[in-house]
Amino acid sequence: MTISETLEYELKKYVGGALPAHAAKDLHAALALAEILESRGFAFHLKDLCPGSRDQTRWQAVFFKQGDEFTADHPDAPAAVCTAAIGALSSLETTASLN
Fold first, then answer.
1. Distance (Å) of CA 40 to CA 56, 64, 86
2. Model confidence at 81, in pLDDT bands (50, 70, 90)?
3. What angle do CA 81, 48, 11 make, to 5 degrees?
4. What is the pLDDT of residue 96?
5. How far apart are CA 97 and CA 60, in angstroms?
6. What is the dihedral of CA 95, 81, 32, 57, to 10 degrees?
7. Which of 53, 75, 80, 93 is deepest in the core (most CB within 10 A)?
8. Cβ 3 vs Cβ 25: under 8 Å
9. In which domain, by residue range, is 18 found?
10. pLDDT at 94
11. The total number of structural domains that make up the chain
12. Of the candidates 68, 48, 69, which has an alpha carbon nearest to the alpha carbon of residue 59?
């Protein structure tokens, strides 16, 4: 499995059929995924960690909720968004199992 396939497989566990197609490869789809998390109460921020660089890319995606922060850095913005989303969504599952 590629990284993109692995990320999308994990995300389907949390959002099922609502997962936008190619979320781990396509920035527009990744941002649609971020909107799904925002509808679940998360705030979202995507930051270019190498602004102005012509030969380097690194993105940081952050989801926030009730003082918790879920962050991921990756050269590809969609992968960063998906990785951070998995952390955020898994925290909801953990919280639900504790209650």
1. 33, 11, 13
2. very high
3. 5
4. 53
5. 29
6. 170
7. 80
8. no
9. 3-98
10. 60
11. 1
12. 48
**Total residue count of the chain as it appears in this document:** 99
- Span 27-80, pLDDT tens digits: 999 999 999 999 999 999 999 999 999 999 999 999 999 999 999 999 999 999
Q: Which pLDDT score, from 0 to 100, does residue 91 have?
A: 87
3-state per-residue secondary structure call for 62-90 = EEEECCEEEEEEECCHHHHHHHHHHHHHH
Q: Return the bridge partners of 73, or none.
A: 60
> What is the sign of the dihedral through the CA atoms of 18, 80, 63 and 90?
positive
The residue type found at 86 is I
Half-sphere exposure of 81 (CA within 13 A, CB side): 29
For residues 12 and 85, give the distance between their C-alpha atoms in angstroms, rounded to a whole number.
Answer: 11
- CATH number of residue 76's parent domain: 3.30.2120.10
Helix (H) or strand (E) holding 61: strand 59-65
3 Cβ contact partners less than 8 Å away, ≥ 6 residues apart = 24, 79
Please tell me the pTM assigned to this model.
0.91
